[in-house]
Amino acid sequence: MPVVSASQGAVQVLLGKLGNILATKYALLSGVRGEIQELKDELESMTACLHDLADDDDHNEQTRTWMKQVREVAFDVEDCMDRFRRHLSEHHGDRQGLLEYLYRMFNKLRTLRVRHKVATGIQGLKSRAQKVSDRRLRYTLNDSAGRSSKALDSYSHLENLSHWLPEISGDGSGLVGMHGRTDEVVRLLKEPRQAAAGPRVLSIVGFGGLGKTTLATTVYNTPKLGSIQCRAFVPVSQTYDIRSLLESVLKQLPLLADEDRNYDPLLNMKGWNTRELVDKIKQHLEGKRYLIVLDDVWQAAAWDQLKVAIPHDNNNEGSIVITTRSHEVAKNCCTSSNDRIYEMKRLEEDDSHQLFFKTVFESGECPTDLLKVSKAILARCNGLPLAIVSIGRMLARRQNKTSAEWQTVCDRLGSELETNPTLEGMRRILALSYNDLPYHLKACFLYLCAFPEDFDIRRGSLIRRWAAEGLIIGMYGRSLEEIAQIYLDEFVSRSIVIPGQIGCTGKIRSCKVHDIMLEVIIAKSVKENFISFLGSSQYNTAGHDKVRRLSIHPGGGKEKRTFSSKNIVHTRSLSILGSTEKPVPIKFADLTLLRVLDLEGCGWLRDQDVKDICKLPLLRYLSLRNTAISQLPNAIGKLKELVTLDVRETSIGEFPKGITQLQNLSHLLVGRYQYYTRTRSVKHLKGQGAKLPHGLGNMGALQRISHADISTEKSSRAMRELGKLCQLTRLCAINKGESKLWEPFAASLNELSNSLRHLSVVHNSTPTGQELEFLVGLSNPPLFLQSLHLMGRLSKLPTWVSSLNNLASLSLRENLHLAEESFEILAKLPSLVSLKLYSKGYVGSALCFEEGGFPRLKQLVVDNMDELEELSFRGGAANLERLTLAFMRVLSRGINGIGKENLPQLREVEFFSGVIDSIFCKVFEAAKEYKNRPKVTRDDRPTIEAAQASAQQVNDTAGARSSEQESTDQQVDRPADDEAAPAWRLLPSTCPLAYIL
User: Fold this and answer.
1) Calculated CA dihedral for residues 695, 697, 703, 708, nearest 10 degrees
2) Distances in whole angstroms, Cα of residue 735 to Cα of each of 717, 800, 843
3) I want to staple 787 with a disulfide (CB 3.0 to 4.6 A). Which of 471, 529, 758, 933 is the partner?
4) Can you tell me whether residue 45 is helix, strand or coil?
5) Which of 371, 379, 376, 383 is nearest to 408 (CA)?
6) Contact at 8 Å (CB) between 892 and 863?
7) For residues 370 and 406, is the Cβ–Cβ distance under 8 A?
8) Residues 109-156: pLDDT tens digits?
9) 894-896/549-552 β-pairing
């Protein structure tokens, strides 16, 4: 339950703070140390109780209320402690001797009133905590009472959910969008198999409600598999009993009866032990073609326990179909070379409309006046069949099918999910994925609803917010960022978030939550007062006297005020993303308990607002990204607790001196990028970053600086202090001035060799000499780099680059002018995953990937290199998955070797900027040879007719054209209006390769 994880998370954070206070001089406050110790003991007992309750999936209102009270006490205690520490730190000094003694005495007198107030508050909170504990005993909230009646019958309710789609015909043809999927799964099951590898296991994996069970049922019933002698369809679910599963399989097998037809071969089955059940199943499957479906598998252990009953003889032609929501379970079940994984996709737009209209209207036709609102409803469903059918059935039952009524349903879908019986089944199916999460992940998952619908949630921002909120539980030997990455990977593996951008190393760079799943977790968050929403009248916040986290989605500021200023003064986290008008109740100076403030995209933000923000002493995370702010006040130095300052995509060009007082600041983010491809694999820095003041060396917690402008003598002096930042792992420096300004930067770089993992060095001005030559002469280079980005003239690649055994990403931009011998060095880097070569970054005439070179390369970008005449793959870069190309001219020696023989792992080819049609079509044709059909996209495709003509021309003359003939191909011009011709549009469906947006 969310209240369990939210409450326990709040108490765990507090216990750590109480422990620290008891261990410091702050606890010497007269008469309070004992009170704090008792309060800590009381909360520890509550935490243990909450941990026990986390094992249940649901609780009654009595238990839920008690857990909410525990959480509120914990929040109030933490607020009290933070106020106390803040008051003391405001009057703390670094004096010595007699001066320090006199100052301490004076300080005690100054803070006497505060200390008395804190002592009174702690005594009251301790009494309150004890009363909360007593109340639990008074109302006998034991395990049986804590279990809700809804939870007890949840699985019996779910048993009837297999019929949420229309009737299934034998081959699935009666279901919208299911016929083609059935054929795909059948094809995978009938593929040739290696001998002695046992039965084929095929896992169907995907988000809850995508129709995995329905697809498995159509495959189970289809005659296209041929003669199947034995079949069994076994529901597994979250809580399974292995004996029951074995009995279920055995009951469905055609057993050989005794000559006496009245004899039941399973008569004494209840008396058989597990070993006997296993032997009976093996006996009846031996030598037969069989199909066993294991539906709704949550743990790979279920298959591990069942497969002992499956024969593994050499002539085995059996098949096992598993449905699961977890990619990790799917991979763990498919371990043989014969096994396959089939990933369920959302319905296409046309299929979504057909299924919706077929569900709502008997005729299957939608009235014209309802088409617009139907499109809005289907956009919320986002191709999820369960949502489409469930909402369609709800609307079908309504007598008045008017546009206004349907629009109301669309706007209030969250409350409908909670109250409408027709949607109860869908809500429970989606909630199962949430309930299956470990308790320490539930609060992090609920936190995703702080972001608006369809918001592209960036990994870095999310991780830093989780950390600032105290939602990440520490692990020995791992950083908070590494732990948070594990959390995010777990969500993707369980199919409860949709991955967006994927980095070259395979890490998720952004994600989204399905709209319907978002409504489910928003409802949970509001119910448990985890996150509140301003301007959303559909969410009932009755009984929530204190708002702890507040999210204002776009348009929320225009709605009727739902919170008073008194309600929100306790707010610890505030998100206002993409808002054009300042919400009326918000006064930053009053929100003194704020830890997290995210104002990304707020067009109304002004300098006075930032001055008020600088009065928030507990702030740990501040994002002013993509706002109109052009400067920061010197008072920014008052935010002593600040860990993240994000001013990317703003006009801030210089940081004030006060920023050097932020000794806890770890992430200083500035600068903006322009992206040129759909996957964001090609980007260019816009602007020049920001200048840093003298005193940078005082900021010892800094881990990341991007992008520092060192173009003046003043900012260059700050670079001399970089060497003091021993925790610095990411650094981007930009120089648009003279080459000599790199000298202090180079000196500091020698001192950071052990800490730096990511380095970007950009000389962004007209090249006059060897601007980056200082890199060649580094005496102590950063040999632990994982990524390196260079822009500016170099005579040669630094020799130490060949020693970068951990380097995964390398980008060589304009004006480097590296020759072919440099390419030979790069080919030997053992960990290189991503290589990006831009115009004049490499000046060789050929890029030839020879056998054995670039052993781990997965991503290659080649951008309009003027001198390049040949791009060839000759056995090197065999693991390449994504190829990104831009050519505004035909290469005289061509592009060769793009095929399944040389690039067997290729999954995507994307063209950007100017593209020659003949080059595009040649790659297009080569991709057709692949079994898995790599995606081929372009962001400036010509007219449909021209593309079809070019493709046809290549088809007619494949293999017969010389490079001289290729060079005479006519280039089709780009559309003149870039806005009217958006990037990465699809080619027509008649093209022989599937394209994607």
Assistant:
1) 50
2) 13, 23, 23
3) 758
4) helix
5) 376
6) no
7) yes
8) 555 666 666 667 776 776 777 777 777 666 655 544 444 443 333 333
9) unpaired
Top CATH class, 681-817: alpha beta
Low-confidence ranges of the chain (pLDDT < 70): 1-36, 38-40, 42-44, 47-48, 50-60, 84-119, 123, 126, 136-175, 195-197, 255-264, 313-316, 476, 535-544, 554-566, 767-768, 940-997
| The CATH number of domain 155-254+271-343, selected from 3.40.50.300, 3.30.2350.10, 2.60.40.1590, 3.90.1300.10 | 3.40.50.300
Nearest to 178 by CA among 221, 211, 154: 211
Contact between residue 580 and residue 603 where contact means Cβ atoms under 8 Å apart = yes
Which residue carries 């737009």 as its tokens?
349
User: What is the C-alpha to C-alpha distance for residues 445 and 808, in angstroms, rounded to an integer?
Assistant: 30
- How many beta carbons lie within 10 A of that of residue 64, not counting itself? 21
Residues 6+ apart with CB under 8 A from 747: 720, 723
pLDDT tens digits for 701-760? 999 998 899 988 888 788 889 999 999 999 999 998 888 889 999 999 999 999 999 999
Which stretch of DSSP H or E encloses residue 319? strand 319-324
CATH architecture, range 531-652: Alpha-Beta Horseshoe (3.80)
Distance CA 376, CA 379 (A): 5
* 771-775 CB contacts, 8 Å cutoff, 24+ apart: 771/735, 771/739, 771/742, 771/815, 772/742, 772/816, 773/739, 774/739, 774/742, 774/743, 774/745, 774/746, 775/746
d(CA 75, CA 13): 10
Site of tokens 């006997």: 276
Q: What is the dihedral of CA 509, 668, 684, 848, to 10 degrees?
A: -60
Element (H, E) at 874: strand 870-874
Residue 416 CB coordination number (10 Å):
20
- H or E segment to which residue 360 belongs: helix 349-360
Q: Which residues contact 676 (CB under 8 A, 6 or more apart)?
A: 682, 683, 684, 912, 913, 939
The two tokens of residue 561 are 């005020």
Cα separations in angstroms, 510 against 460, 488, 499, 678: 8, 10, 6, 13
The pair of three-digit structure tokens given for residue 7, joined into one six-digit string: 């409450």
